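Friendly challenge for the regulars: who can give me the C-alpha cells for this chain first? No prize, just bragging rights.
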Amino acid sequence: MSIVCDLDGVVWDGSQFIDGSVDGLTLLHQHGYEIWYVTNNSSTPARRHCDRLHAAGAPQSEHVVTSADSAASVVHEGDTILVVGGPGIHAALQDRGCRTMGSTDLTPRSLPAIDAVVVGIDPDISYHTIWMAQLAIANGARLIGTNPDTSFPSDGMIKPGGGAILAAIAAASDSEPTITGKPYGPMADLWRRLRSDTEQPIVMIGDRRSTDGAFAAELGAEFILVTSRISDSDLTDVPVHHTVASLRDAATLLVSEG
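First reply, four minutes later:
Bragging rights claimed.
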C-alpha cells in the first residue's frame, strides 16, 4: 500500500515535530507501506525537507514532493519566471532549466519578457511585488499558483498562506491562475509518475478536507483526516474514511486493519 502523507500539521508544526509522528511513520514502514510526503509548502526546497525527515529518523525521507515541484512540471525548460515566493520555488524551477528572478530589482521600465509568474508563500510580499507581477501578466505571462492554501499551521499559530498572496495577484491582474499543488491535477500527475508501484492501493493522511481530502479523491485514495493541528473537519462535501487525533493513531489504525 502507498501512503501519501502531508507534512505541515501532520508530521510537524513549524519548527517542531508533532508528538509521535516519526514513530507512526516508522510503524508504517516496518509493516511494508511505501511512504510519500506530499506537501503544499513551496518555500522550502524538497531536498531540505528530505534532510529534516532523515535527521529525525523518518523512513523513506527521500520521497518528498512539493507544490514547487508541481509548478515546475507545468513550465518549460528555458522559461523566464518571476517568482513570488521562497527558495523552494527558485530551486525547483532552476532544476527544470528555467531562469528565475525576484521583483526587487525590477521596475516598470526594466521589466524583461517573462513567461510565467509563479506564486507561493512570501513573508516579504510588498505592493511593488504585486505590481511587477501584475505588469508581467498584462504583458502575457502565465499566472501559476503553487497552492491554494489561504492559511497554514506554524509553531502553534495559524499564518496567512500562499493562496492568500495568489488571490491578491489574481485580483490585481484580473486573471485566473493555474494552481498546481494539492488537490489539483499537476500534483497528482507528478506523484503518479514518481511512485514505484502503480498497482498498490493508496491512503492519503492529511489535516484538510479541502486540499488533502480532495487530493485523495483525485488519486482514488482513502482519506484519513488528522486533527492534530489545523483541520477543516467542518466541511462535509469530501468523504473521510477515518478521523484520528494524530499520525501515530493513523498508523496504528492502518496496521491493525492489515
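The first helix runs from residue 21 to 30. The radius of gyration is 18 Å. Your move, everyone else.
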